[in-house]
Amino acid sequence: MNKTQKLIVGGVSAVALIGGGIFAYTQMGQTAETLFLSRLSENYAQKEIATNFTFSVDKFDVGDISYNGFDNVKISGSIHSSTEDFDFTLNSFEVAGFKTPKAHLIKANEDLYINAELIPTFLEFQTTSAGLSVDFSESSKVVEGKYFSVGDAIKELAGQEVYDEFEKVFKQSGEENAALKKEMEASYKTFLSNIDAKAFAKSGSDVTLTLGAEDIKKLVKTSFETIANSEHYEGDKDSIKSSIASLESSYEEALGKLDKLEVSLTLGEKPGDMSTKITIEGKVEGTTDAKIEAVVRYESEAIPYQKPTKPENMIGTSELNSVITDIYSKIYESSYSSYNY
């Protein structure tokens, strides 16, 4: 991913971060702007959130080519999240003729658990894409319905040093996360209070915020600066500070290739109900006249929250390693037999 793409993705991600946690808070007589800010505050007051979500590609055209394999793609799933834990499911979906595996990640008891079925299914997806024919049925039966501990797997397969880094990043305290969340809330509220009131609009019980390219750039900078200056962020601050320093020139270069970059957030009346629309129009890099047009959406709907817990049906690291070794042995055999000697 080049610098231009990174900046666009960074801007979109920052906008989605605001929208991802905004919930309904209605009050008669509020303007669109104050209603939006009220719902933002209500969101950050929530300690738990649960939603079903859908990501879809409405349009993806480059030049005279319409990438039909990506048009009408719909990715769905669910998430149950608190300051301490989460339960994330990404359902299987098809894109460009390929079917992806279902993924289920659970953070509970200061560890991360993943559905073990993901491994043979994902490797089967890769080998099929490479034109190889491998029978994964036996391996799939061994791991069916089971989960493995990422922490245990890292410790046994990658060593204590790698595990220590995993533990440092992954087991950051809930208090630290909550403190950083409050700092982000304050910075976003300040940013939104300085946005032109015309960017906010009400339609029935919904309220929409529409940001153009310049506002997205300001939001990216606001996000980066808040994180870089926070005492509660334990990641790579030097990298973030470097991005801030180069943001202005790099973003201007990116905007020079775009005719339109727009993000609209529509917030519903119920907690967790939200719709995000991202529109990109511009030139294709390396050409003088080819255009790119893309429209993608993210929608979420509130569902009852269920506390994430450690899965009951676990598979040990040794058994999992045996399954992986067997799979790669079959892949090697298939690759070897495809050659003619």
Task: Describe what you observe in this structure.
It is built from 10 helices and 14 strands. It is of the alpha+beta class. The strands form 2 sheets. Strands 1, 2, 3, 4, 7, 8, 9, 10, 11, 12, 13 and 14 form a 12-stranded antiparallel beta sheet that branches. Strands 5-6 form a two-stranded antiparallel sheet. It is globular.
Distance between the termini: 39 Å
Which parts are unreliable, with pLDDT below 50 for 5 consecutive residues or more?
A: 1-10, 16-28
- Provide the structure class: alpha+beta
Average per-residue pLDDT, rounded, comes to 80
- Report helical residue fraction: 40-55%
Number of helices: 10
- Biggest sheet features: 12 strands, antiparallel
Approximate strand percentage? 25-35%
Question: What's the order of the H and E elements?
Answer: HHEEEEEEEEHHEHHHEEHHEEEH
How many beta-strand elements? 14
